[in-house]
Design brief:
Layout: H1 8-19, H2 27-37, E1 41-43, E2 50-54, E3 61-69, E4 84-90, H3 143-163, E5 168-171, E6 188-193, E7 197-204, E8 207-214, H4 215-224, E9 236-240, H5 260-272, H6 274-281, E10 285-290, E11 300-306, E12 310-315, H7 316-321, H8 328-334, E13 337-338, E14 352-355, H9 366-379, E15 389-390, E16 396-397, E17 400-403
Antiparallel strand pairs: 1-2, 2-3, 3-4, 4-8, 5-6, 5-9, 6-7, 7-8, 9-17, 10-11, 10-15, 11-12, 12-14, 13-14, 16-17
Length: 413
């Protein structure tokens, strides 16, 4: 008997879902998909049907997922008679193994519409024992975020090998579709888009989930969040360049912050889970912030870099050229660390003389890092966050054009 190669079972499950007939996402068609094509059991339950896989355990079967019905928070975006907007299958701790599925916990509860920008989520694994490192989140190593990020990366690599590169990738941030709250560890996603259905590697509270979704309701929700109100969209959204599967995709407009307090809050939320998200997606983000500085135009001021870890660097030449720039003691007070004490671990385009230090998944206190960055930008005279832009090519990441909704910034026109 030939042993399955790592990720084979996950790839087979993904293809089975992708090739299945969902009809119009009505109960009869989906029940046939679950029972006849997958060979699973359909059970009615409060909050929506669950799906179980026949087994040999004490109860003879094991619940592995659920269907999300069109309810009060979904109905405004399902326009073609859909009764459900997703099949949710949580993956287990070994998504590449013989059994990629985990025993499904209770289906999520939906928080409902948000009244304005959401409050920042608590840092992953926050404890009463604070660390002395500036910008560090008080957690014991980043294990709470690193574990789901690693499982997501494994599953994403296996699905990419089987299906090709995802049409869309990114991080949901707050809010997630239909106003769900994002997991504390991060909210990365990979989506293979079809005209009728999408297959998505999705962030669950304990790690990745495999979802089959109807395309239109998902995209209707996203597009209608682009109304420009602060906090309407978070995270970042990448569209694969030249991919015919993205034909007809609507991309919502973002929002800009003109108040330092609003920007600092958004930046903190963006940074708090960024290391876990870039590690999970297998991408590297490196972008310099340009700001209007009196008498200097819009120079590069600092660089944000995230891959397996997150680090922000301050350019050496900025200290040399700014006549009224902050002194070393002011930089320390803001939370910057001289590189002669803590050398930079990332490439930052140009030499840097201060950094924030490097943070792995779950280690960064996003709010503290945002205060460090915003304090510096205000110290050098940047008048307001609306005058900030990103460096050239910052929105081109690994073959995707990326919109940074949660960061509220874009490249200069």
């Amino acid at each position: 008997m030939t042993e399955a190669r790592p990720g084979q079972k996950l790839a087979e499950l993904a293809r089975t879902l992708w090739d299945g007939d969902t009809g119009g996402w009505r109960r009869t068609d989906l029940r046939a998909l679950v029972e006849e094509r997958l060979g699973w059991e359909w059970s009615e339950a409060e909050g929506g049907p669950t799906v179980s896989r026949p087994g040999t355990g004490a109860d003879g079967s094991r619940t592995v997922g659920w269907l999300r019905p069109v309810d009060r928070f979904e109905k405004d975006y399902a326009h073609d008679g859909e009764e459900y907007v997703g099949i949710y299958l949580p993956l287990g701790p070994d998504p590449l193994g013989e059994d990629p599925l985990a025993p499904a916990r209770q289906a999520p509860t939906y928080p409902g519409p948000l009244a304005g920008p959401p409050e920042p989520a608590p840092a992953v694994g926050r404890s009463a024992t604070a660390t002395k490192r500036p910008g560090a989140c008080p957690v014991p190593a980043g294990a709470l975020a690193a574990t789901p990020a690693h499982a997501f990366r494994q599953a994403g690599d296996a699905l990419t090998e089987a299906l090709g590169p995802a049409s869309l990738m990114g991080s949901y941030g707050m809010p997630m579709p239909y106003y769900d709250s994002p997991p504390l560890w991060g909210s990365p996603f990979l989506r293979w888009r079809g005209q009728r259905n999408c297959l998505e590697l999705h962030p669950g509270p304990n790690g990745p989930q495999l979802l089959l979704l109807p395309t239109d309701p998902q995209e209707n929700w996203h597009l209608r969040q682009g109304h420009g109100e602060p906090g309407a969209l978070g995270g970042f959204f990448g569209v694969r360049t030249g991919d015919p599967a993205t034909a007809g995709l609507g991309i919502p407009g973002g929002w800009r912050a003109d108040d330092w307090g609003v920007f600092e809050r958004a930046l903190g939320e963006f940074l708090s889970t960024l290391a876990a998200e870039t590690r999970a997606l297998g991408i590297a983000i490196s972008m310099s912030l340009h700001g209007d500085v009196p008498g200097m135009g819009g120079p590069m001021l600092c660089n944000l870099s995230s891959a397996d870890t997150l680090e922000i660097g301050h350019y050496t030449w900025t200290s040399e050229q700014l006549a009224n720039g902050p002194r070393a003691d002011t930089m320390r007070a803001l939370g910057w660390i001289p590189t002669e004490e803590v050398p930079a671990t990332h490439e930052h385009w140009d030499p840097v003389n201060f950094t924030t230090g490097a943070f792995g998944p779950g280690e960064a206190d996003g709010a503290a890092l945002a205060r460090t960055v915003v304090g510096y930008l205000r110290e050098v005279g940047v008048p307001h966050p609306a005058s900030l832009t990103l460096s050239d090519n910052a929105q081109q990441i690994s073959g995707y054009w990326v919109t940074y909704y949660g960061l509220t910034l874009r490249e200069a026109d």
